[in-house]
C-alpha cells in the first residue's frame, strides 16, 4: 500500500513521519466536525506559524488557498527538497488565535 501524500507539500507521509490532522476551518471558528486533511507535522506547524485562526477560517479554508499563500509557497519550495520523514523546529512564534 502506498503512503498517504501530504496535500500541502506533495511528499509522501511514511508511517514513521511526524504527522497530524489539520482542520480546514479551525475548531475555534466553527470547524469542529468539519473537513480535515492529513499533513506532515512540519507542514501543519508552518500553517499555524503563518496564519491566525481567523485568517484560516476566513481566507484559507482550502488546500489550494493555503498553497497560494506567499510564505507557504516559499516553504513548500524549500520542504519539497527534503526527505518525506524530515522534521525540524518551525522558526518563528506560533500566531495568536
UniProtKB/TrEMBL annotation:
Listed GO MF terms: endonuclease activity; nucleic acid binding; zinc ion binding
Pfam families linked to this entry: HNH (PF01844)
Residues in HNH domain copies: 6-49
Gene3D superfamilies: 1.10.30.50
InterPro entries per record: HNH
Superkingdom per UniProt: Bacteria
Taxonomic classification: Bacteria, Pseudomonadati, Pseudomonadota, Alphaproteobacteria, Rhodobacterales
Coiled-coil intervals: none
Entry protein name: HNH domain-containing protein
